[in-house]
Amino acid sequence: MHFLFKKLFSSSAIVLFSLIAFVHFCNTNAVLKPPGNATIPAIIAFGDSIMDTGNNNYIETVAKCNFPPYGRDFVGGKPTGRWSNGKAPTDLIAEELGIKELVPPYLDPNLQLQDLKTGVCFASGGTGYDPLTPILASVISLPDQLRMFKEYIGKLNATVGAEQTNFILANSLFFLVAGSNDIANTYYLSHAREIMYDISSYTDLMIKFASKFLKELQGLGARRIGVFSAPPLGCMPSQRTAAGGFQRNCAEKYNRASLLFNSKLNTTIDSLNKNLPDSRVVYVDVYNPFLDIIENPQNYGFHVADRGCCGTGDIEVAVLCTLTPTTCVNASDYIFWDSYHPTEAVYRTLISQLLRKYINSFF
User: Fold this and answer.
1) Which SUPFAM superfamilies does UniProt cross-reference here (predicted)?
2) From its phi and psi, is residue 81 left (phi > 0), alpha (psi between -120 and 50) or beta?
3) What is the rounded distance in angstroms from the CA atom of residue 109 to the CA atom of residue 118?
């Protein structure tokens, strides 16, 4: 028996079991297939904390979450720099498409070649379209994320060659999530732009930089790009607390600002698609499905919609979540993990809906 046990767990057996596990992951988790025989070799993400899988761990900023209670429901209960109790949408997209379970941050010093080939994340929590937004938060700007992406392309070229690199760039799915920090923090909270712009002209400024980013990303070889809309910002617990009155209702001026920006973003993407015929830039409406979850939580199995799981749930985010030992027992009952970011359970619900609705639009 002892001999059989040793034989079973010999190095060759472990390799075989690893292969079986990988095939099983691909077969069971690839629940969503792209149309026809389309191939999606990698998931590549840009933007803010919604997509950030840990890049802020490696920069000098207070906008970090690589400490408890963040990551409480992640594998091993480990805080990784993901702004939730578990996985980030970046991971869930890759998982849903059967590409891999986790998408690492590009700044992770332990990146492997396989990570580069199947996708990395350039997003940085706290950033935005407005160049002032990442300065205020001391995080990675979108132009700097593009510079990191150019470096990434160089690494791919050096390891897999130009032909394979071009194939990965042309067939991967790219996602961009930004805008929330611009409206909620740079415009309304800090008032840094409110002196110079009304909300209409400020959203024009955001669109100007969003369009510039997308054109440059396309110029670097990206051909399938999904751009998430702004969410119903006024319904985040922090905005309810700051501007929702005594009853902490959804702050309507924030929601109106999101809708104004979203309308302009949708129009801009339509224009880009006409002028970039060999690319597919897809406007992904997050606002309406997320608002439905917030307004009808019971329909999705949630119970708490107006406050986060950590602390009081009214205002805590990042390091503020460490100032009180109070954290909800079951994060899956909650729509929000902290006062800004959804729980993994909500991310799973949204990503599943959004991929099924929009996947064909990329092809």
Assistant:
1) SGNH hydrolase (SSF52266)
2) left
3) 17
Q: Choosing from 73, 108, 182, 338, which is the catalytic residue?
A: 338
Catalytic residue among 48, 49, 124, 258: 49
Is the pLDDT assigned to residue 6 strictly greater than 70?
Answer: no
Cross-strand bridge partners of residue 224 = 280
pLDDT in tens, 237-291: 999 999 999 999 999 999 999 999 999 999 999 999 998 878 999 999 999 999 9
Three-state SS at 327: strand
How far is Cα 22 from Cα 103, in angstroms, rounded to an integer?
16
Please name every residue paired with 173 in a beta bridge, in sequence order, or none if there are none.
43
Q: Could you give the CA distance from residue 263 to residue 277 in angstroms, rounded to a whole number? A: 22
Give the E-state strand segments of the chain in sequence order: 43-47, 173-177, 224-228, 280-284, 304-308, 334-336
Using the Cα atoms of residue 89, residue 92, residue 98 and residue 102 in order, give the sign of their dihedral. Answer: positive
Per the annotation, the verdict on 338 as an active-site residue is yes
Measured in degrees and rounded to the nearest 5, phi and psi for residue 130 equal -65, 125
Average pLDDT over residues 127-137: 98
Q: Angle at CA 222, nearest 5°, toward 177 and 125?
A: 25
If we measure between CA atoms, which residue out of 197, 195, 225, 200 comes closest to residue 211? 225
**pLDDT, tens digit, for every residue of 9-33?**
333 333 333 333 343 344 334 468 8
**Which residue out of 73, 108, 258, 341 is catalytically annotated?**
341
- Whether 51 and 121 have beta carbons less than 8 Å apart is answered as yes
Mean residue pLDDT across the chain: 91
Distance, CA of 227 to CA of 122 (rounded, Å):
15
Phi then psi for residue 284, to 5 deg, are -110, 110
pLDDT on residue 28:
39
**What pTM was estimated for this model as a whole?**
0.90
Which amino acid, 196?
M
Instruction: Indicate the helix (H) or strand (E) that contains 203.
Output: helix 199-219
Per this entry, what is the length of the chain? Answer: 363
Instruction: Tell me whether the omega of the peptide bond preceding residue 277 falls within 30 degrees of 0, making it cis.
Output: no
pLDDT at 182 over 50: yes
Q: Tokens for 110? A: 């332990």
Residues whose CB falls within 8 Å of the CB of residue 186, separated by 6 or more in sequence, listed in order: 128, 130, 132, 133, 136, 192, 193
* The token pair that represents 75 in the structure block: 């594998």
